[in-house]
Structure of Proline--tRNA ligase:
Amino acid sequence: MKMSKLYMPTLREVPSEAELPSHKLLLRAGMIRKLVSGVYSYLPLGYRVIKKIENIVREEMDAIDSQEVLMSAIHPAELWQETGRWEDFGPEMFKFNDRHNREFCLGPTHEEIFTDLIRHEVKSYKQLPLSLYQIQTKYRDEKRPRFGLLRSREFIMKDAYTFDIDEEGMRKSYYDMWKAYEKIFERCGLKCKVVEGDSGAMGGSDSHEFTAISEYGESNIVYCDDCDYAATDEKAACLYEIESKNLEELSIEKVHTPNVKTIDDLTEFFSTTSDNFVKTLLYNVKDEVVAVLVPGNKELNEIKLLKIFKVPEHELFMAEESQVKEVTGAEVGFAGPINLKKDVRLLVDSRVTKMKNFIVGANETDYHIKNVNYGRDFTGEVIEDLLLVEEGDKCPKCGSILKMDRGIEVGNIFQLGTKYSEGLNATFLDENGKERKMLMGSYGIGVSRSMASIIEQYHDENGIIWPLSVAPYQVVVTIVNVKNEEQIQLGEELYKELSSLGIEVLLDDRNERAGVKFKDIDLIGIPIRVTVGKKASENIVEFSLRKEGNKQEINVNEVIDRIKEEFKNQGLSV
Amino acid sequence: MKMSKLYMPTLREVPSEAELPSHKLLLRAGMIRKLVSGVYSYLPLGYRVIKKIENIVREEMDAIDSQEVLMSAIHPAELWQETGRWEDFGPEMFKFNDRHNREFCLGPTHEEIFTDLIRHEVKSYKQLPLSLYQIQTKYRDEKRPRFGLLRSREFIMKDAYTFDIDEEGMRKSYYDMWKAYEKIFERCGLKCKVVEGDSGAMGGSDSHEFTAISEYGESNIVYCDDCDYAATDEKAACLYEIESKNLEELSIEKVHTPNVKTIDDLTEFFSTTSDNFVKTLLYNVKDEVVAVLVPGNKELNEIKLLKIFKVPEHELFMAEESQVKEVTGAEVGFAGPINLKKDVRLLVDSRVTKMKNFIVGANETDYHIKNVNYGRDFTGEVIEDLLLVEEGDKCPKCGSILKMDRGIEVGNIFQLGTKYSEGLNATFLDENGKERKMLMGSYGIGVSRSMASIIEQYHDENGIIWPLSVAPYQVVVTIVNVKNEEQIQLGEELYKELSSLGIEVLLDDRNERAGVKFKDIDLIGIPIRVTVGKKASENIVEFSLRKEGNKQEINVNEVIDRIKEEFKNQGLSV
């Protein structure tokens, strides 16, 4: 492609709306444009990267005998109602009616649609196992779309679904997909950690997330360097242990604590440390208030709470002020387990039961109670682990200190078991003619999100540094001065020769100052650069790699060998 | 691909919902499945054909320097309101609100979205001309979705948009696209006629439709064998001429015509021919009734009426019974231009003014009036041409008798002029620094509809006969008896050898009776067939083409040459 014809509206200014490197650079490099909040258009260079990623996905899916299909983006409500997810998804689902007033949604995922297809088509164990995938546009009406392609309302996904006759088959399908995902992300150049995931709205038993390490990622991941343990912080088991202290249980005592509400205020007021407090958190779950008790120095993991109540995320939130007053009889900040004014469910993290003489709110404005002890002063439902893993916690598998990192969830794999085949009655006849439910898996890769994640991992202050495998073009030939005949001629010759070898080449033949051209080339991140300048008459050109920057003068005859070398270094062939 | 693993749910029965060959065969061959009315899923074989067509489109678009992008399927209402099309599209648009109650639609076409992109990005004549395209899913909430992929509510389109500085540039872009379309349809094997089109909701000046000839097509096209005139029947000028008769104008006379309403009844009653009548048709246009008069032996062309009233299709319909009674004072069937009870607009096709002593309704139940003459007995707005072209009409260009055919509109190209750049204020600065509106073109190809159209043109009673260029697989190697070791071995060898040459091969290794296999192979329409049967031990196989059927025994060594020969015959290379 000649850049004089390429539609590549680069920007010098950093768009004010963008915070993250990937978002800024995708806009600046003229690869995407915002239509409305969370909805983007892919311009020529950006869409070439998308197609590169899609092709890598296709090749690895085909390699494990998954077959490509394309399903609708508009789904009839009935199927989602059959599994109960029409309500579960809540406001995240775009919903609409057709001209006959039939209800539809824009598909946020496709478990219902694939299961519906298969229940009508597959009747016998002979037709299983089956693995189908699609690369398709998905929709989620995010509360706060942000970070460009990392959290958008319209996005490109690869989603796959497997159907097996038994658990063993399901686990094999899961394993195959896992291995394919590793290859896909490796080929895209993405450095990922595979962590135990939370199944969330998908349901089912086992799940893993492929997380691209990035300081701006929205996922917190926890892993152990001494063993293979790795999980999201939402899922990770917290091995926090309370030393059993052989202390005498003192008498409880009400203390006047005017306007002292937070743990920080309280530690100062009582001149003690936060591990001597127990926090009483009031939540609203399906219009009912529940109280949750955790040690004052630890955080509650809300995802663990969701699992106990078996509700979707949007149905759990902190109790409102009026509810707090009704339940505690006090202002916000003085809740505790003793003398609640209403009978509410009381969930207690198991560590609380091992603490001695701790401090809690008194359910009375400006008062706390000290020397409280579980069992003697109150009881509740004891839950083994409600805590969020934190820096310094120990690995639940080997006891070493866990490490934490941030990352972007670019892929996920779920063992769904029979959740959907039960909900939608997807059965088959086994070898003995007995009707059984299919065992399913579902697997996602965020294609557009992967593009942004690659940029998060590959950029510098001047722009993007694409890995060769996903670069919009592999090589750029820059004619420094387009008024110089020799430069034009040599540039065009190189362009033609490289193109004829199947190399994807940009020819920068724009009538711009050299500085402008080099800035653009840095910004759009083409991996291999050949610059045709003053020494064109001597058949000397400059060769450089975007990732290194140092330029070398070489004879034009060496160009192809040098390109081949870099292809080889990055695991590709010309 | 081994067919034992291929997801290809063929059906023996013809699905009752399907009327057209393409619809029946796509369902029977397991290529598509219906999700809901007008919404389909593409299964593995069907989606391979879609991708083949898409790639042909891509290559030809790239060849004319059109650049691929991908825009959103969800459009904010504001852009459509700016051009006034939010209302124009009426109930054909799927509309919905997001969680913040902002209005959106599912894009039925993308003029607004592309123009919006360009008005923000392109400021100078130096950035023009520009040609962009996308292959994307479109939505129209059709009143009566039917015929499978030919009239669906969700469909795959290639749409392109060009932006030029002047008329000349626009016409060149239009011509380039025209030529690219000819190549695309030719490569897909589609026999098309290019006809003058009606611009409809697109607006603009000039347009053409690419119509795949098919007896089941919904478009009627009119063309001349003696010159290059070709148009849709909606657009075609009707050259119907009334011989001026030097007859005396007789006195009008009211005739009792009890229960005689239709032209057929009337010709019988009056013992005359239909060209002695004038039909008075009552229409409802924006809640107002208008009367339209055409010769009794000709049909009104409603599209020509739409243009006069400048309203979209859904705002013009036949007047309701109550309106007819109100305007004529009579039952339906007795309308006429004389003594209307209400003052309505009266549109008169110019031929009516040349007729003598004709018969019309009397605006009184069971009465007609004869010997009516335009000018003497009534007047109205005379319109040059309101008639639909019919078999036997003459070519408006050369006067020869026109021919008529049916077809499917698979592509269309529009010169939009400044319709959208005015509506959305898309301007650029010309060489003199003067602000000017861009000249636009818009161009569509129905990708999914093309797939169905190819089947309409290529099938027989046993199934589909894919042209090699779009076939899901190019060759099928059938192992007749999968219990025979020699057959398996030879079949697998051939499969591997052909695959290694880059040929797309299916290996029918299914444990089914030979008859079942052959029926399936016929049905799915793979162009080249190699059958490995009893003579495998002698290295003899059967070679046949789906389009011919006659089988030939050849030595296995000849297979590749025979395949190459057929590739060459169909303009492809191995």
In short: Chain A touches chain B through 50 residues (CB under 8 Å). The CA atoms of residues 88 and 312 of chain A lie 6 Å apart. The mean pLDDT of chain A is 94.
